[in-house]
Design brief:
201 residues; Aminopeptidase; eight-stranded mixed sheet; 8 strands; 22% strand
Amino acid sequence: MATTDEVRIVPANESTFEELQAILGERGSGHRCQCQRYKLAPGESFGAVPIEVRAERLREQTDCGNPSSDATSGLVAYLNDTPVAWCAIEPRPAYVGLVRTFKVPWEGRAEDRSDPGVWALTCLFTRMGFRRRGLSRELAKAAVDFARSRGAHAVEAYPMTTTRAIDEELHVGTCTSFAGAGFSEVSRPTARRAVMRINLL
């Protein structure tokens, strides 16, 4: 989907699930979350859904290993053929937990929460040992192209407002990464979170 001399970015269904898991690691926030924080159904609690179940849900959502699939929920980046980074990108209503959330991203905004033309980039996760190389920025750019090609009229992200975020928070990305990909800040729903957006029409 996007390629430089070293970095190649593809829809997650063109990767294997083993490669995606190599990015998320065997411990830490990526491994624990499996990008399910905003995917929980009403009435589900994060702690009550085992990691194995979260991982299986991510496998289904990405359709990893099925390159002919028309549906996938993210992108995978490779550096010299090593899987190194992942981002979650889908129509915003697909994140049922995000739609239910009170402050982020809704505080102070009049938004149609059901609008499928607004896509949300909820996770930018780089594998340990490959951070601070600009991979998040490249993934964010590729995610915008990915959403545009599927009819999105805007893409949003919800990064931390400081680069001093603890490891548990880094998966949402930083304002710097998104600004470098062309996003602009539209609101600050909390002291530590921003809403950044790029309009495509």
